[in-house]
Amino acid sequence: MFSGLIHGSEASIPPEEARGPSLVLTADPKPRLRWTADLHERFVDAVAQLGGPEKATPKAIMRTMGVKGLTLFHLKSHLQKYRQGKQSGKELTEQSKDASYVLENPSSSALSPRVPAPDVNEGQEVKEALRVQMEVQRRLHEQLEVQKHVQIRMDAYQRYVDSLIAMAYKIASDQIASSSFGMTEHELTEGT
């Protein structure tokens, strides 16, 4: 459906074809619209012109925004999320007048829908996270190898110390046995 619009990982409709902001579509098998800050701002303005999120309809928003390539499907989905965000914001305000709740819970959908989420390349973040995880695993593996070598050396040293103790015990036992045997023999010769 959008295959003609996609070139590389992301594609956008050239500005001369679109009135206003350009649409950015992902290269997924099912292309999704990436809501940029500019596009979301136009959406919010259109909703405000139409009397708010409850009165605005996707078709009216499409006409008001006037962005070529934007479909009813895109607008229905975005309007639904926008309404849910607004509703969550109302419920939060009624439940707690304390703004610290929103600060403690940054993942909350109660953040103002006018403030768009940062448009960060999620794929890049995932790659970086995987790279960091692989580096941590590599370091842990190195530490484990060092630990194994240290354990082998400690075991060998323990066997060496045990053999020294065993030899010292044998030598001491032999000396004690021969000296006590010699004393007994000496005492016997003196006694006669």
Automatic annotation (TrEMBL):
Molecular function terms from GO: DNA binding; DNA-binding transcription factor activity
Domain HTH myb-type positions: 27-87
Cited Pfam families: Myb_CC_LHEQLE, Myb_DNA-binding
Region (Disordered) residue spans: 1-22
Entry keyword Cell division: no
Domain of life: Eukaryota
Statement: the UniProt record of this protein carries the keyword Transit peptide: no
InterPro entries membership: Homeodomain-like_sf (IPR009057), Myb_CC_LHEQLE (IPR025756), Myb_dom (IPR017930), Myb_dom_plants (IPR006447), PHR1-like (IPR046955), SANT/Myb (IPR001005)
Alphabetical UniProt keywords: DNA-binding, Nucleus, Transcription, Transcription regulation
Name this protein carries in UniProt: (wild Malaysian banana) hypothetical protein
